[in-house]
Amino acid sequence: MTLLSQKYLPTDSAPNIADIGDVAGYTHLLLMLSRIPADNTAAPDPRELAMAMRRWSDSIRSQMPHYAPEHLGRAIECYDIAHRLGYNERPDSRTIDEYRRQYFDSWARGNDRINESDIYAMVSRKAAAAPDDVDSRQFGAFYNIREQWMKQLRYNTAFAETTPGENYRRLSLVMPENLRPWFRFDQQSRKRQWAESNTVADLRSLDTPTLLSYKGFNLSLWPAVNPDAECNRACDTAIASELATRPDLNHYERQAFTLAETI
């Protein structure tokens, strides 16, 4: 596997393609490197970066049959990102759909290491890209999950029955959506209530998995709840800075968040 120049990597060892933490972390690092402006002296050679992404994409695809079912969601997302950036085109939808099916079936059989938010995110992304191609069983599950979430949010400002990380993930998924069918006259005020009730003052009070979800929650507030883009970016940078210090975070992820502070 061809990797980028060692100056961009946090260790002397190559990422382990069998470790989903390394897969997600290294993909994130590649993504952040791709966002460095070309006129910045820290930017990698674009040809080297594209080659690294293509090789990484191919490696994920080869490893896909060997991931545990609960890791397929992250693997699919990483493969999609690396393939698009490396080859400048979408990956084969038949390959993606087959692993989506396996992921969904594992959840439907009761795999509790796959969360409702994982299924919701997977199906909503597919529906946004190709609404006519969404599997009917998957869409039915998505519909039922959304209905349950809306019932809970009608009387609460958070999903109290789940983990803090899953709560933030669910909120980050519904914040950008049009919720008029459930909150016809007050969706904006409802979203503000959810945001205010779930915002934390001290980022250090959140454990690392929760802080990762909180980062997505914060980003989802713009522009639906917080129209101030600069304020939202400042909050995101502060979260990335805190994540970059977390020793229990994958080292490629830490490097990616360190880069995020400077881009």
What features would you highlight for this structure?
263 residues; mainly alpha
| Proportion in helices | 55-70%
Strand content: under 5%
Q: Helix segment count?
A: 11
**CA radius of gyration:** 19 Å
What overall geometry do the principal axes of the alpha carbons give?
globular
Report the average pLDDT across residues. Answer: 93
Largest sheet: none
- Number-wise, the strands total 0
Overall SS class = mainly alpha
Distance between the termini: 27 Å
Spans with pLDDT under 50 lasting ≥5 residues? none
If you had to describe this structure to a student in words, what would you say it looks like?
This protein has eleven helices and no strands. The chain has helices at about 20-35, 45-65, 70-85, 95-110, 115-130, 135-155, 165-175, 185-200, 210-220, 230-245, 250-260. Helix 1 (about 20-35) runs parallel beside helix 3 and helix 5 (about 115-130) runs parallel beside helix 7 (about 165-175). Helices cover about 60% and strands about 0% of the residues. The model has no long low-confidence stretch (mean pLDDT about 95). The protein has about 260 residues and is an all-alpha fold. The longest helix has 20 residues, at about 135-155.
Record the SSE blueprint.
Blueprint: H1 20-34, H2 46-63, H3 72-87, H4 93-108, H5 116-129, H6 136-155, H7 164-174, H8 187-198, H9 208-220, H10 229-243, H11 251-260
